[in-house]
């Protein structure tokens, strides 16, 4: 699974993207975020306020309860603003 991080999420985690293999019991984006948070303080800091983060699965906006699969791309980013 490929994870992509944007804006301040990227800055807090310290990576643009990474490939991960979460345990089989990780079946949703929310569970993926929980698993990531257990990996280190940088993930806990970046993903602490999930109401401030949007997620996409395979380049489509989805909710935190969206199911995930092994070959998915999951992106984490703050809401986009325009002006």
Please write out the topology.
Elements: E1 2-5, H1 7-13, E2 17-19, H2 29-37, H3 41-47, E3 54-57, E4 60-62, E5 73-77
Parallel strand pairs: 1-5
Antiparallel strand pairs: 1-2, 3-4, 3-5
Tell me what you see in this structure.
- The structure is a single chain.
- The protein has a single domain, classed as Ubiquitin-like (UB roll) (Roll).
- It has a five-stranded mixed β-sheet with strand order 2-1-5-3-4.
- Helix 1 (7-13) packs antiparallel against helix 3.
- With 83 residues, it is an alpha+beta fold.
- A hairpin with a 2-residue loop joins strand 3 and strand 4.
- The protein has helices at 7-13, 29-37, 41-47, and strands spanning 2-5, 17-19, 54-57, 60-62, 73-77.
Q: Count of DSSP helices?
A: 3
Q: Order of strands side by side in the largest beta sheet? A: 2-1-5-3-4
* CATH H-tier superfamily: Beta-grasp domain
How many structural domains can be distinguished in the coordinates? 1
Mean pLDDT: 95
| H and E string | EHEHHEEE
Strand content: 15-25%
What is Rg?
12 Å
Label the overall shape.
globular
The class by helix and strand makeup works out as alpha+beta
What would you call the quaternary organization?
A: single chain
What's the CATH first level?
A: Alpha Beta
Please estimate the helix content.
Answer: 25-40%
Number of strands: 5
Low-confidence stretches: none
CATH topology: Ubiquitin-like (UB roll)
Under the CATH scheme, which architecture would be assigned? Roll
Q: What distance separates the N and C termini?
A: 34 Å
- Major sheet description: 5 strands, mixed
